[in-house]
Design brief:
Order of helices and strands: HHHHEHEHEHEEHEHEHEHEEHEE
Strand order of the largest sheet: 2-1-3-4-5-11
Number of strands: 12
Distance between the termini: 74 Å
Helix content: 40-55%
Strand content: 15-25%
């Protein structure tokens, strides 16, 4: 049996009574800040013709002709933190506004990232966003800096040629240490919420906390808690962690995510541990759950996060190759509530 011929843009143009160029415009989409080449009525007529003919654009052919995929790739750790979920939501809004789509390249162990790099070098996406870039290590960072596509990375700094979303986290970590020191804390444990690592030195947040504690608060006992999985917590894991912590004098927990901090706060109150009287807890990320815990969670983060300016800049680099990379600063602050 002969295969039914697939409708073309020329067929749609004839059916709608417009030019093929107009159909191409509707299929390709147009950035909101560009002058439209067709009225809303014409656009609707073309879309109706496409539906009636069951026309679907051929993605690979369109990408080959335009040298554009209309895709934004996000390279991110897995599982996502609440902060990363918010960042991704904002990116998807900006992408839709600019007729783009977002795809995720998620990784656990760092070895997975090499496969992502191959896809990106081969032109999978028009632009790249890298979440958690500062924890990848200098060799992987250098590989991302060599990509031929505009790249926006979440990091305090790194190689040239990329745009940076900087949160200046270390200043807020110092504020948290000063708060705990002023409250008479004698034992500080850092909870590393990262299922990918067994060595906490791979976390920049842990390194900063350790270095600043050693230099500015030498009298406190500081050590990491390495094996609490905030993404998939269990009662047994939380109980074991809290049992060890509460055996120490005047303890506090500094958690690398609100996810772990909120879970441990809940587990502590279930066990009759008074927060903050018996145990002080601080999270990171300013996730919405921090306002729903009891007591409300003290955290580090951006008070009203809006990253759309950085994302629009990334899109503009795709559309206008002369636009240069730039840093965007969203400094963290200590958001004190009642858990510390």
């Amino acid at each position: 049996m002969a295969r039914e011929r697939r409708p073309t843009q020329a067929d749609v143009a004839a059916h709608a009574g417009v030019s093929s160029a107009t159909v191409s415009y509707v299929v390709r989409g147009q950035r909101p800040n560009r002058r439209a080449s067709a009225s809303p009525e014409i656009v609707e007529r073309v879309r109706q013709a496409m539906a009636e003919l069951n026309y679907a654009p051929h993605w690979s052919g369109r990408a080959l002709r335009s040298q554009r995929t209309r895709l934004l790739a996000v390279v991110t750790y897995s599982p996502l933190t609440p902060w990363a979920e918010e960042l991704l939501s904002q990116l998807q809004i900006v992408a839709r506004r600019n007729n783009l789509e977002v795809i995720l390249l998620r990784h656990g162990p760092h070895e997975d990232i090499q496969g992502h790099l191959v896809l990106l070098r081969d032109g999978l996406a028009d632009a790249v966003v890298v979440i958690g870039f500062q924890d990848l290590g200098v060799e992987l960072q250098a590989e991302f800096a060599k990509l031929p596509t505009p790249t926006l990375v979440h990091a305090e700094g790194g190689p040239r040629g990329m745009s940076y979303l900087r949160q200046e986290e270390r200043g807020a970590i110092r504020s948290a240490l000063e708060l705990l020191r002023g409250e008479g804390v004698e034992t500080l444990q850092f909870v590393l919420d990262d299922v990918r690592r067994t060595d906490p030195s791979g976390s920049s947040r842990f390194r900063w906390a350790a270095e600043d504690t050693k230099s500015a608060w030498p009298g406190v006992r500081f050590e990491p808690v390495r094996q609490f999985d905030g993404a998939h917590p269990t009662h047994a894991a939380a109980a074991a962690l809290l049992e060890g912590v509460m055996a120490l004098p005047s303890p506090a927990l500094l958690c690398s995510s609100d996810r772990s901090a909120g879970t441990l706060l809940w587990a502590a109150t279930q066990r009759g541990i008074r927060v903050p009287d018996d145990l002080r807890i601080i999270g990171m990320g300013n996730a919405p759950l921090g306002l729903m815990t009891y007591p409300p969670l003290t955290t580090l983060g951006v008070l009203e996060p809006d990253y759309t300016a950085a994302m629009e800049h990334l899109v503009s680099r795709v559309e206008e190759p002369d636009v240069q990379p730039a840093p965007f600063d969203f400094p963290w602050e200590l958001i004190r509530r009642e858990s510390a």
